[in-house]
Design brief:
The chain has about 375 residues and is α+β, with helices and mostly antiparallel strands. It has four helices and 20 strands. The termini are far apart.
C-alpha cells in the first residue's frame, strides 16, 4: 500500500512538473482564458488545455457564456455579450458551451470537448465576447468605429453606460447629418450606409433602430427612435461625414418663414423653410405639385401667382436638413406649414423648387 501511494504521489508530482514546464514555454496555464484579436475587453475567446491555447466553437454560444468568460477575466458581467471575432487558428477545444451564468470559470460549464479543426465546427464559427470596459460612457454619446479615418465608421450610441450599435433600418442621411454634427465633424452632406466599415462591429446584440430625424437636432437622442432591436453585423448603420461643419444656427431665422434660394432672381429658386431657427429644404419628390407651389408663392407675397414647378434639383439639392417631407396642400392654405405632411425614409435629396409669376389682375376687364 505504501508503495502504491508512493507511485501515485510521484505521478502527481510529475504531472505538476510537466504542466509547469509547458506553461513556462507557452505562457498558458491549464484552465485559463484569454481574448485575442481585439483588445483587453473584447475579442476571440481562447482557452488553455494542456498548456496549449485553442478556440471555442460558437454553436450554442450566448450571453450567459459570455458573462462567465468576462467574470473569469475580472470584468463585470453587466453588459457582457457575444461578439463576432476574426478567425483563429490551431485547435478548437470546446463546442456547445452551456453556462448558467453563475459559474466562475467557463470550464465549470457544460460543454462538448473537441480537438482539431473539423466539421461540424471550423474557425469560421469561433466564439467571441464583449465585456464592459472599466470606463463607462456618458448616456447619449456617439462614436464612430471601424473606419479608416475619423470621419467615417459604424455608429454606436451610449445607453446607460454601455455602447450600443444602431440598426440600419430607417437610418438615413438626415440621421447621419445629426450624428456627424454631434461629433463636430463635417455634416452638411453626410451619408448613411450599412455594413461598410467592419465585418465585426464591437457592440452588444441589441441596437437602436428607426431613427426619425429632421437633420437639425443637436443630438441623435433628440430624434425619435425605437430601442431595442437585434440585428446582425450586416445590418449595422454607418456614416460618412462630409461637407462642411454645421454651425449652431438656433434663432438665426424667424420660425415658419419661407424663401427661394439659388435662382436667377428673387422669384425663383430652391424652396427653403425655417423651423426652430434653422433653414432647411422641402422634399421635392413626385408629390410636389402646383398646389404646393401656389401656397409658397402666396406666402411670399404673390397675390395671383402663376407657378412653375421644379422637382429635379434644378437649383441645387441644398445642404441643410430636410424639414418638410411628403407635403400635400389643397392650395388655399396661407402657409406651407398649414399643409399636411408625412415622414419618409428616403435617402436621396430631391429638393423642391419653383418660379412664381403674378398674373395681371386686370386681365379680361375693361379699364
Amino acid at each position: 500500500m505504501d508503495t502504491l501511494q508512493s507511485w501515485l504521489c510521484l505521478l502527481y508530482l510529475l504531472t505538476l512538473r510537466n504542466e509547469t514546464l509547458v506553461s513556462a514555454f507557452t505562457g498558458c496555464s491549464h484552465g485559463s482564458v484569454r481574448l485575442s484579436s481585439g483588445s483587453s475587453y473584447y475579442g476571440r475567446v481562447e482557452v488553455c488545455i494542456g498548456g496549449e491555447w485553442g478556440t471555442v466553437c460558437r454553436s450554442g454560444w450566448d450571453n450567459n457564456d459570455a458573462a462567465v468568460v468576462c467574470k473569469q477575466l475580472g470584468y463585470s458581467t453587466s453588459g457582457a455579450s457575444t461578439y463576432y471575432p476574426s478567425l483563429g487558428d490551431g485547435a478548437i477545444y470546446m463546442n456547445n458551451v452551456n453556462c448558467r451564468g453563475t459559474e466562475l470559470s467557463v470550464f465549470q460549464c457544460d460543454y462538448q470537448s473537441l480537438i482539431g479543426d473539423y466539421y461540424p465546427c471550423s474557425h469560421s464559427y469561433d466564439a467571441g465576447v464583449y465585456c464592459s470596459s472599466s470606463s463607462a460612457c456618458i448616456h447619449g454619446q456617439v462614436r464612430l468605429t471601424g473606419g479608416d479615418v475619423s470621419t467615417e465608421g459604424n455608429v454606436e450610441i451610449c445607453n446607460s453606460g454601455q455602447w450600443n450599435g444602431v440598426c440600419s433600418y430607417g437610418f438615413n442621411y438626415r440621421a447621419a447629418m445629426v450624428v456627424c454634427a454631434q461629433l463636430r465633424l463635417p455634416s452638411t452632406n453626410a451619408q448613411s450606409n450599412s455594413y461598410r466599415y467592419s465585418q465585426y462591429p464591437i457592440v452588444p446584440a441589441y441596437n437602436y433602430s428607426y431613427f426619425n430625424c429632421y437633420g437639425y437636432e443637436s443630438s441623435i437622442m433628440r430624434c425619435s427612435s425605437y430601442c431595442c432591436y437585434s440585428c446582425d453585423f450586416s445590418s449595422r448603420a454607418g456614416v460618412t461625414c462630409r461637407g462642411s461643419v454645421a454651425q449652431p444656427t438656433t434663432g438665426s431665422c424667424p420660425g415658419q418663414t419661407v424663401r427661394l434660394v439659388n435662382g436667377s432672381d428673387e422669384n425663383e429658386g430652391r424652396v427653403e423653410v425655417c423651423r426652430n431657427g434653422v433653414w432647411g429644404t422641402v422634399y421635392g419628390g413626385d408629390r410636389w405639385d402646383s398646389r404646393d407651389g401656389r401656397v409658397v408663392c402666396r406666402q411670399l407675397g404673390f397675390q395671383n401667382p402663376a407657378v412653375f414647378i421644379f422637382a429635379d434639383n434644378t437649383f441645387g439639392a441644398g445642404s441643410g436638413p430636410v424639414l418638410i417631407e411628403l407635403i400635400s396642400c389643397i392650395g388655399t392654405e396661407a402657409s406651407l406649414f398649414q399643409c399636411s405632411t408625412g415622414n419618409s425614409n428616403f435617402n436621396d435629396r430631391y429638393s423642391a423648387a419653383l418660379r412664381c409669376e403674378n398674373y395681371p389682375t386686370n386681365q379680361g376687364k375693361c379699364l
